[in-house]
Design a protein that fits this description.
The protein is of the alpha/beta class. It contains 5 helices and 8 strands. It starts with a strand and ends in a 6-residue tail after the last strand.
């Protein structure tokens, strides 16, 4: 699986203290995307799913983790690896938030029944839809643009996510190696 970075603790992409995984590769290339550096596939960023799980287990071993967020790029573009990864992540947390530029209905059509099951069993919340800059209304902390949907597969997670969304957008700046990364859903024009 091609992964650019793992960061913890992130509080600006879902409620609580989260581990966030940024995958590499997105063919949608939305205008004013927040992560254009992750569009192009990069074999140098490839890591075996088993090794990735081991790194995640080591990272989260002695810390409080409320959830995992998977974003990118577009994780769905690496669906084979993603659907191998999700069951292992569920051993760490029962809250997995997944971002994709694809719409849910198209994703379901493209998946076999086993992967449909994995998606619904292990992903708590799906944020779907392409980012459309003109529809960035500067409001929802989980969506970049108003066409995107917040889909709850695990209804028990709805209340904490709604509480989180009622607080407004949060931006968290993190130094990653020698680079400053601004994490969260940004207002239009930033």
């Amino acid at each position: 699986m091609q992964v650019d970075r793992l960061l913890y603790p992130i509080t600006s992409l879902g409620f609580g203290r989260r581990l966030v995984i940024w995958t590499v590769g997105c063919t949608m290339k939305c205008n004013n995307c927040s992560n254009p550096e992750l569009w192009n596939s990069n074999p140098d960023k490839d890591i075996d799913v088993i090794d990735l799980v081991e790194i995640i287990l080591q990272t989260t071993k002695n810390v409080e983790i409320d959830g995992i967020t998977i974003t990118g790029g577009d994780p769905i573009e690496q669906s084979d690896e993603l659907f191998k990864l999700l069951p292992s992540l569920s051993k760490i947390t029962d809250d997995i938030l997944l971002y994709t530029g694809r719409v849910y209905e198209d994703i379901i059509k493209s998946l076999n029944s086993k992967n449909q099951f994995i998606l619904h069993k292990y992903v708590s919340v799906l944020i779907d839809g392409a980012y459309i800059d003109e529809l960035n209304d500067n409001t929802c902390p989980l969506r970049g643009s108003s066409n995107q949907r917040v889909i709850f597969f695990d209804k028990s997670k709805k209340a904490p996510y709604m509480d989180y969304m009622n607080k407004g957008r949060i931006i968290q700046n993190v130094f990653f190696y020698d680079t400053l990364i601004s994490v969260g859903i940004h207002n239009r024009g930033l």
